[in-house]
Design a protein that fits this description.
Order of helices and strands: HHHH
Number of helices: 4
Number of domains: 1
Largest sheet: none
Structural class: mainly alpha
Strand content: under 5%
Radius of gyration: 19 Å
Shape: elongated
Distance between the termini: 42 Å
Helix content: 55-70%
Length: 141
């Protein structure tokens, strides 16, 4: 008699999905708190889905110069997303990579990419975006 293992879903398996959902919820919420301003119209009010960037929510002030109460929520959302994607890269590598070499490349570079991405809210935003993207390239090869 052959017994089949039941495919159980463990809590850790849901982390990427739940993290992405949390990110989207916090992103939507923080966008409602953004005071305003964009490159298209410095005096605009609120978050403009066409003219603002996610990074605008991470700034100390809105582009219109007013204090930005969305910042802490946007930072938390970014950290949640990056941590969730680290778990995703580990799961992805273990599930789909046939080579030990590529499994390690995906895990290490995915974790490094997301670790640097969590720092995009700092004064080194541009540098962290570039470094994160470089490590991310090795993950999608």
């Amino acid at each position: 008699m052959i017994q089949k293992k039941a495919n159980k879903i463990h809590v850790i398996d849901t982390i990427p999905f739940l993290g992405i959902l949390t990110f989207v919820g916090l992103y939507l919420f923080s966008s409602t708190l953004y005071p305003g301003g964009s490159h298209a119209d410095i005096n605009s009010t609120g978050f403009d889905w066409i003219h603002n960037y996610w990074c605008n929510l991470l700034n100390e002030k809105g582009m219109n110069g007013q204090p930005n109460p969305a910042k802490p929520y946007a930072i938390f959302a970014t950290v949640v997303l990056c941590l969730s994607l680290i778990v995703f890269f580990i799961q992805f590598a273990k599930t789909f990579s046939k080579s030990v070499f590529w499994k390690q490349i995906i895990i290490v570079n995915g974790a490094l990419s997301m670790s640097f991405a969590t720092l995009i809210f700092t004064q080194y935003h541009d540098l962290m975006t570039i470094v994160s993207s470089i490590f991310g390239l090795f993950v999608v090869m």
